[in-house]
Amino acid sequence: MEIEMKIKGLVVDPISKMPIVVLEDIQSERILPIWIGVFEANAIALTIENISTPRPMTHDLMKNFLNKLDISVDKIVVNDVRNNTFYALIHCRHKDKPLIIDSRPSDAIALALRMNSPIFVEDSVVSKAHSLKFDETLESSEKLKKWLENLKPEDFGKYKM
């Protein structure tokens, strides 16, 4: 079953200093943190903050191609997690023909924001993600889990690069 989610915010992991996009179930308060790269976080942040760039960024270029080719993005789905790596599919449509494209979740989310497409996560991914083992060499992995679970809206300020 697919769960529709929205972006709750972008934060920086206090341990690894890597960006995290936090998705939230629109029907409940379940969250799904996904660690992403700095460039993808920047692409997501630019869209969230409605900041335009003087030249098209990569995801803007993708949007322009899709629009010129008359391809819509119906939705994106974070559909799997294996070995602590998340996977996503971009569900497109061209002349009533469905097209499904493999993607990293961060790229799929950045594109979905630009195309005004909904974001979904498979229920099984949310379940698996809650049992993910963080890097066991980190003494505070339990502390990180608790920190993520206790995030409040005011913790999601503007994403700083």
What's the CATH H-level homologous superfamily? Bifunctional nuclease domain
Total number of helices: 5
Share of residues in helices: 25-40%
Measured by DSSP, the beta-strand proportion falls in 25-35%
The geometry reads as globular
Q: What assembly state would you assign to the polypeptide chains in this entry?
A: single chain
Unreliable residue runs: 133-140, 157-161
- If you average the pLDDT, what whole number results? 86
Class of secondary structure makeup: alpha+beta
CATH architecture: Roll
Largest sheet: 7 strands, mixed
Any idea of the CATH class? Answer: Alpha Beta
Tally the beta strands.
7
In short:
This protein is α+β, with helices and mostly antiparallel strands and 161 residues long.
